[in-house]
Structures are given as C-alpha cells and as structure tokens.
Amino acid sequence: MSMIAAFYSGKSILITGATGFMGKVLMEKLLRTSPDLKVVYILVRPKAGQTLQQRVFQILNSKLFEKVKEFCPNVHEKIRAVSADLNQNDFAISKEDLQELLSCTNIVFHCAATVRFDDNLRHAVQLNVTATQQLLLMASQMPKLEAFIHISTAFANCNLKHIDEVIYPCSVEPKKIIDSMEWLDDAIIDEITPKLIGDRPNTYTYTKALGEMVVQQESENLNIAIVRPSIVGATWQEPFPGWVDNLNGPSGLIIAAGKGFLRSIRATPMAVADLIPVDTVVNLTLAVGWYTAVHRPKSTLIYHCTSGNLNPCNWGKMGLQVLATFEKVPFERAFRRPYADFTTNNFTTHYWNAVSHRAPAIIYDFYLRLTGRKPRMTKLMNRLLRTISMLEYFINRSWEWSTYNTEMLMSELSPEDQRVFNFDVRQLNWLEYIENYVLGVKKYLLKEDMAGIPEARQHLRRLRNIHYLFNTALFLIVWRLLIARSQMARNVWFFIVSFCYKFLSYFRASSTLKA
Ligand SMILES: CCCCCCCCCCCCCCCCCCCCCCCC(=O)SCCNC(=O)CCNC(=O)[C@H](O)C(C)(C)COP(=O)(O)OP(=O)(O)OC[C@H]1O[C@@H](n2cnc3c(N)ncnc32)[C@H](O)[C@@H]1OP(=O)(O)O
Ligand SMILES: NC(=O)C1=CN([C@@H]2O[C@H](COP(=O)(O)OP(=O)(O)OC[C@H]3O[C@@H](n4cnc5c(N)ncnc54)[C@H](OP(=O)(O)O)[C@@H]3O)[C@@H](O)[C@H]2O)C=CC1
Questions:
Q1: Are 21 and 251 in contact, with CB atoms under 8 Å apart?
Q2: Integer Cα distance of 463 and 442 in angstroms
Q3: ipTM of the prediction greater than 0.90, yes or no
Q4: What's the 248 CA to ligand 1 centre distance in angstroms?
Q5: What DSSP element (H or E) covers 226?
Q6: The dihedral of CA 449, 450, 452, 458: what is its sign?
C-alpha cells in the first residue's frame, strides 16, 4: 500500500493553477491514486467566455482524465471549483467560499503563476508575489492546515551558475516592491524594470525569486516546502506518455520546427537541456506534500526537480532526436520540409534569420497577395523570431542544481511509493521520451490524426520537388544575369560548357572502342 496515497485519503486539498499545464496533471494524479480523498478545491477564474463550470467540465472530459474515471468514477463530485481571481484583492472569493476553504483545507498546492517572459513587472509581481503573499495569509488562518507546497522554478536564480537548495535573497525586499507597485505609474515601472531584474533575463524569473522570499518570511508560522522544477515537458509515463497541452518551453518550438517554419536557432549544442517531465514534477510534489505534513521538517526545505546532474541530455542530442522523429511521424500541412540547425554566433544567426526565415516568408506573402489572399507569413515569422529571442537565454547556458533534498526524499520513500510516485529521473530514456514528446505534440496539441501520416509524407514530397524547382530556377536566373553583365562569368561558362562537351566526346569515343 502506498503511504503517500493513503496520506491524501480523506483530505481536503486546495490547488491554485489547477487549470494550467502542471495543475491538471497534479489533480489527475491525486484523484487517480487517492480516490478516497475528501475534496479538491480549485481556485478558478472565468475565462475566454467560459464559466467556471464549463472550464472544469472541459478539463474533466479531456483525454488526460480518461484513466482517472476508471479509478474514481465520481470524479466530478470530488472537485469543487471556487471562483477566484488572483489578480484581485482577497482573490474576489465569496465570503461563504472563503469560510469553507479556511475551515476545511488540509494541504495547499500553490501552482498558479504568470509564466510569460514578457509580462510587465506590475502584473508579474501581482501574480507571482502579491498573490503568493495573500495565499500565505489565508493559509495562516487555516486551523487544519498540514502543509503548504509552493511551486517555484529552478530558474528563479538563473543569474547564478551553481544553485543550492536554499533561498537566495534579492537586492530589494519583496514588501517594498509590492508597495511600490501601488503608487508607481506604468511608465516608471517600465523604466526601473531592467534595474530591478538586474542580471536575470525577464520579469518571470525575478518575480518567482521574490515569491520565494515571501514564502521564507512566512515559514516560521507555516509548515512550508518549495518545489523548483526546471523546464517542464510532456508526460513521461502517466497517465500516458507524451501528453502536453500548451506551447510553453520546447513544445512551441517543436511545432515550429515540425511545420518547417523554424530553420535555425541560436543554441549551444553541448549545453544541458534541463527538461523534466510534468508527471515527474507532480510525483515529487505529492511526495513533498506527504513528507512535509508527516515529518514536519524544522526548516523550509527546497526540492530541485531537475534532470541535469542525474541524467543529463544536451540540446544537440535533443534537437537531433526531434528531427529524427519528424522523419517517422511528419506533421501535416508543413510550410517547408522540417530541417533545422543550431547557430552559435550573432553573424550566422542574423544571416540564417534573413535567408531561412524572413526571405521565404516574404516570398510566400508575395504569392498569397498574387493569388488574392491576405499575407500572414511575415507576421507569423516575426512572432516566432521574438519567441526564439526570449528562449535563447535558456538554451545557451548550463546550470548545476544540487539535488540533496530531492535525493534524501527518494530514500525516505517505501519501494511501493518509489514506484507509484516515481521521480527518479535516472530511469528516463531521453531518446524514447523525446520521441513520445514529439508524438504527443502532434496528437494532443495539434490534434492531428495518425491516419494522416501518408498524406503528410506526400505533402513533404511535393515540397521537396518545389524546393528543387525553385533552387534550379533561382540558379539559372542568377547565372543568366551574371553572364549578361560579366566577361569573367561568360569565360567561366564557356569553359564549363567546352569541358562538358570534351568529357562527353571522350566518353562516347571510349565506349565505341570497347564495343
Ligand atoms: C543539431 C540539430 C539541431 C536541430 C534543431 C531542431 C530544433 C527542434 C526544436 C528544439 C527545441 C528546443 C527548445 C528550446 C526551448 C527552450 C525553452 C526554455 C524555457 C525556459 C523555461 C524556464 C522555466 C520556467 O519556469 S518558465 C515556464 C515556461 N514559460 C514559457 O515557456 C513562456 C514562454 N512564452 C512567453 O513568454 C510568451 O508566449 C512569448 C513571449 C514567447 C510570446 O508572446 P506573444 O505575446 O508574442 O505571443 P502569445 O500571445 O503568447 O502567443 C501568440 C501566438 O504564439 C503562440 N505561441 C505562444 N508561445 C509560443 C511558443 N513558445 N512557441 C511558439 N508559439 C508560441 C500562441 O499560441 C499564439 O498563437 P495564436 O495562433 O496567435 O493564438
Ligand atoms: N511550465 C514550466 O516549464 C515551468 C513551470 N513552473 C512553475 O509551475 C507552476 C505551474 O506552471 P504551468 O502549469 O506550466 O503554468 P500555466 O501557465 O499552464 O498555468 C498557470 C495557472 O495559473 C492560473 N492563473 C494565472 N493567473 C491567474 C489569476 N489571475 N487568477 C487565477 N488563476 C490564475 C492559470 O489559470 P487560467 O487557466 O485561468 O489562466 C493556470 O491555471 C508555476 O508556478 C510556474 O512558475 C516552474 C518551472 C517550469
């Protein structure tokens, strides 16, 4: 019997960010392994014209939740969606809901965050710092609370090269930042943002670091732990391999490469690709929840959920495997045949951006205009290049994360728990994982049917022929122009033609002699 699964039975669990990538997998695993839990409260906001109920209904009826329904047929009854917006004061939760949350919650998993790299500081602070502070305040009023688990990121301190499982202070106190957001106007905030974030690449990593400091300040009153995942990718094993439902991290770029838009990217092939499957993160998070509640460690423990020091894979190996998988399972309706390469300096990056990204987009838009359609490729390509520029920081560096606490926790688990809540990334076979990831992107993100593969192959063959035709035509045009304008080109041309003629004559003569 799993001790962790038994621990969550009968418990009331509060999850923020349950509609997000990680939150959904967390909720699924909890319900599947502990179908006797009392209730899962999820803080949800209405979004994109959908009510809370519609959002929850959509999630529970998705492919991800198919398996859980076998273990927990009354899954709908176990979930209680509470209307809440973490951008609002007191989360705009109704008094009755708040009362119920405060009096019943046993465990809190705080996953909600803005993960956008380009968010303005005000919004990132509101969600990643102020909302964390408010949630901790709520937690301090929960008499039955056993553990509060905060999800941070391994990149919160990406300005350092070696990162330990400790909280590193930021130069300005989070309380001061929160206060200043109240009275500073947007223009001034934008101006001071680069100074505040310092040598971090974006507001996301900075505000996640501030969020950790807020957690630390509350750690005397509460039983808290922090989980720091690195780049969270598709599921490895559970509930099935390859599940992914958003474009964050590598997923968006896998699509861009598979559809033939992405041709080159500035990346360091030998840099460690510190990817971690989402189900591994969830297993560790649930184990941390159990350990924190049952063992009540004296201080706030931080757990790195990373792969680099235990089972490293680099971007070069990952990129090659992604491309190899496109050969087996091509994506449908590609713009060009999938092929991409890494560049390593500014000059080649700009060159290939112009030649392989911008020029084909301009040509295609010209073709769209000619055929009376609206041009769209240049806009799409600009967006892709902007996305790449935001991710480049993470694919050109390597970090070392110590995993002492995570390994300690692994050794504390029973063999059954090590199996059910497996977070031992040493068992991960990267080539298999990446292949399943690409397949998952095709099936669950692009919603493409495997039956369409022959048609996709046929489409790629057509693209190859167009490519050859285009190159030949381009060569002939350039050559014709050169011959018309330069004596030297004419001389070279006559030399090649006479050489070919002599070679053919010799070949013909020698074959006649042999006969
Ligand atoms: C040797 C052989 C070489 C072979 C090479 C082969 C290449 C194969 C691919 C290899 C993959 C390499 C992958 C490297 C990836 C590295 C990732 C590093 C991530 C570090 C994570 C740090 C850990 C964390 O804690 S953060 C959590 C993760 N967060 C993110 O990833 C957020 C990133 N996204 C953003 O910040 C924004 O979305 C942004 C700024 C990128 C774009 O903002 P914008 O306002 O322009 O767009 P959106 O409104 O968001 O969306 C517009 C449009 O674009 C689509 N889209 C969104 N994100 C992505 C994306 N990442 N990639 C592609 N497309 C994206 C979105 O759906 C929208 O589409 P619409 O159709 O308009 O709706
Ligand atoms: N994905 C990754 O690569 C990594 C993620 N992390 C951390 O993991 C956690 C989960 O990330 P992930 O699942 O990928 O992120 P997602 O963007 O998929 O999910 C974010 C969640 O936060 C919720 N949220 C955002 N704003 C609000 C709001 N104003 N009110 C209520 N809820 C809100 C979203 O709700 P809604 O659906 O309504 O938008 C969503 O449920 C985050 O803390 C992130 O920092 C750490 C390392 C890497």
A1: no
A2: 20
A3: yes
A4: 5
A5: strand 224-229
A6: positive
At residue 259, what are phi and psi to the nearest 5 degrees?
Answer: -90, 0
CA of 110 to the centre of ligand 2 (A): 9
How far apart CA 370 and CA 359 sit, in angstroms, is 17
Ligand 1 neighbourhood includes 120 CB (under 6 angstroms): no
Instruction: Give the ligand 1 atom nearest the CA of 394.
Output: 18
Q: Report yes or no: 392 and 267 within 8 Å, Cβ to Cβ.
A: yes
- Cβ–ligand 2 contact at 170 (below 6 Å): no
Q: Which amino acid, 404?
A: Y
Mean pLDDT, to the nearest integer, of 193-219? 96
90: left (phi over 0), alpha (psi -120 to 50) or beta: left
CA–CA distance, 234 with 254 (Å, rounded to integer): 12
DSSP β-bridge partners for residue 41 = 14, 80
- Residue 44, classed as helix, strand or coil, is strand
Residue 457 confidence (pLDDT):
96
Q: What is the reported pTM?
A: 0.93
pLDDT tens-digit series, residues 400-430: 999 999 999 999 999 999 999 999 999 999 9
Residue with CA closest to ligand 1 atom 52: 383
Give Cβ neighbours of residue 127 (< 8 Å, ≥ 6 apart). Answer: 86, 87, 112, 113, 114, 207
Q: Hey, where are the domains in the chain?
A: 3-242+273-312+399-446, 454-514
Give me the helix-helix angle, 430-440 and 315-328, nearest 10°: 50
- Residue 257: CB within 6 Å of ligand 1? yes
Question: Nearest C-alpha to atom 47 of ligand 2 is from which residue?
Answer: 153
Q: Is the CB of 21 under 6 A from ligand 2?
A: yes
CA–centroid distance, residue 254 to ligand 1 (Å): 10
Q: Which residues contact 279 (CB under 8 A, 6 or more apart)?
A: 25, 29, 235, 236, 237, 238
Pair of tokens at residue 76:
């709908």
Superfamily, domain 3-242+273-312+399-446 = NAD(P)-binding Rossmann-like Domain (3.40.50.720)
CB contact set of 90 (below 8 Å; sequence gap of 6+): 98, 134
Q: What is the mean pLDDT of residues 10-34?
A: 97
With 80 as the cut, is the pLDDT of residue 327 above it? yes
Residue reference for tokens 């159990």: 290
User: Rounded CA gap, 392 and 343, in Å?
Assistant: 11
Can you say whether residue 153 is alpha, beta or left, with left for phi > 0 and alpha for psi between -120 and 50 degrees?
Answer: beta
How far does residue 241's CA lie from ligand 2's centre (Å)? 21
Instruction: Tell whether ligand 1 has an atom less than 6 A from the beta carbon of residue 231.
Output: yes
If pLDDT is split at 50, 70 and 90, which confidence band does 506 have?
Answer: confident
Name the closest ligand to CA 19: 2
